[in-house]
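User: tokens in, sequence out, please.
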């Protein structure tokens, strides 16, 4: 299978499948000297994982990451304190699948000849034939996005050290759209949502607060802990992670829907559940806001920054990507669409940001604003017309597998992570080209 790598300087390669032994992330370009912990990676993964309430699939995958390579096993010399820090070699993360059960595999087997409309199951069968990994949709399952989130956790840590912040949230769900809010207020609410989910995640407490897995443990020791957790999954499902109303009051956010406006989040949830109870699914819009991006970031022609961000169409559920004003520019006049500039205190400021922080494929220094259109979940509990993909005969399908009533509530951390992968690769190219050119530049106000 090709197409499983992204990036030129910061290169991400992913592998695995929904019902294989697990998934892997292979990163090249991670700088030496970083302290990256499994706890920090899990703090992002827990935002995406299923089994967290009425808006997600009931599959309860722990998504506990294991750092397999790329860090020093011990202090390398006397006087050096570099144990556990990255050493510049490829950084590999494993994400074992723990919630795999035979009865669920049988549900997939019983429907695999009749592909789900709207899903990749027909096209993947045409490409890979009888060897297609069709149990749980294999690599075409949304499960693979855990690899993007894990890789993005590393990329975000690097970008944050350089003053670049990324914040994603649910802008619209099931036809209900959030009101416009200042970026600072959105960022504050999203941070509160992340704290709530981390503070009340049972596995976060069990694994990291109780130190069942620590950075000092060897790989096989960590696997033994995961084997025990696998046995406890049914018990964990029965436990209530937190009191919904108390958590909402304490953190000031909706505990299940990462929308910064609480009233809108509640309305989104109610509508999603109504549609789910009718046997159907719904879509929405995720918005990503990036601050601290230096002006000039990006490459012209075939690798423009907005074109690279458009690669988020690679997320299986995304059907459109907008930058800035997006599709609404078609109804604007130039005088409305243009982001006019002024000089204030020796700095350039823009009076608007319809360009979403990008012109000519290069960053302007304004916040990047990206929106992703999320389609409804293909797997629904309504009869659908399909075919038998082996005999090519007409058939009907009523889905019986575990499903998400909407993907929008879980895809925003994937968008946040993918944005980080794209920007870090572009940022490393940007820094490299500027550094190489410095000896040849005359002193100037722009290039220094």
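Assistant: Sequence out:
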């Amino acid at each position: 299978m090709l197409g499983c790598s992204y990036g030129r300087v910061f290169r991400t390669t992913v592998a695995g499948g929904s019902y294989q032994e697990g998934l892997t992330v292979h990163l090249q370009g991670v700088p030496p000297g970083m302290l990256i912990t499994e706890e920090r990676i899990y703090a992002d993964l827990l935002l995406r994982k299923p089994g967290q309430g009425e808006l997600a699939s009931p599959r309860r995958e722990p998504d506990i990451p294991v750092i397999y390579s790329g860090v020093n096993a011990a202090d390398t010399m006397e006087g050096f304190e570099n144990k556990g820090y990255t050493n510049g070699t490829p950084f590999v993360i494993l994400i074992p699948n723990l919630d795999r059960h035979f009865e669920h595999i049988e549900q997939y087997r019983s429907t695999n000849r009749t592909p789900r409309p709207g899903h990749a199951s027909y096209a993947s069968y045409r490409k890979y034939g009888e060897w297609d990994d069709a149990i749980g949709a294999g690599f075409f399952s949304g499960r693979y996005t855990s690899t993007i989130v894990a890789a993005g956790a590393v990329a975000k840590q690097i970008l944050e050290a350089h003053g670049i912040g990324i914040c994603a949230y649910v802008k619209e769900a099931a036809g209900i759209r959030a009101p416009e809010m200042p970026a600072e207020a959105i960022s504050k609410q999203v941070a509160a949502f992340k704290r709530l989910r981390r503070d009340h995640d049972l596995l976060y407490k069990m694994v990291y607060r109780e130190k069942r897995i620590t950075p000092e443990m060897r790989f096989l020791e960590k696997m033994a802990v995961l084997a025990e957790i696998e046995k406890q999954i049914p018990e964990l499902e029965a436990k209530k992670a937190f009191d919904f109303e108390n958590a909402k009051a304490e953190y000031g956010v909706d505990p299940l829907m990462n929308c910064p406006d609480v009233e809108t989040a509640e309305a989104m949830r109610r509508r999603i559940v109504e549609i789910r109870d009718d046997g159907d699914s719904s879509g929405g819009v995720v918005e990503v806001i990036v601050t601290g991006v230096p002006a000039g970031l990006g490459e012209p022609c075939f690798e423009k920054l907005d074109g690279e961000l458009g690669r988020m169409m690679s997320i299986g559920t995304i059907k459109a990507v907008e930058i800035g004003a997006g599709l609404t520019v078609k109804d604007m006049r130039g005088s409305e669409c243009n982001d006019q500039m002024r000089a204030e205190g020796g700095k350039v400021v823009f009076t608007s940001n319809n360009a979403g922080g990008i012109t000519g494929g290069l960053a302007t220094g304004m916040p990047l604003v990206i929106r992703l259109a999320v389609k409804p979940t293909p797997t629904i509990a309504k009869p659908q017309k399909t075919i038998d993909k082996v005999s090519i005969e007409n058939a009907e399908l009523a889905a019986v597998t575990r499903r998400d009533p909407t993907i929008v509530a879980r895809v925003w951390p994937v968008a946040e992570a993918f944005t980080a992968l794209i920007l870090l690769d572009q940022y490393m190219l940007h820094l490299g080209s500027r550094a190489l050119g410095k000896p040849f530049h005359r002193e100037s106000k722009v290039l220094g």
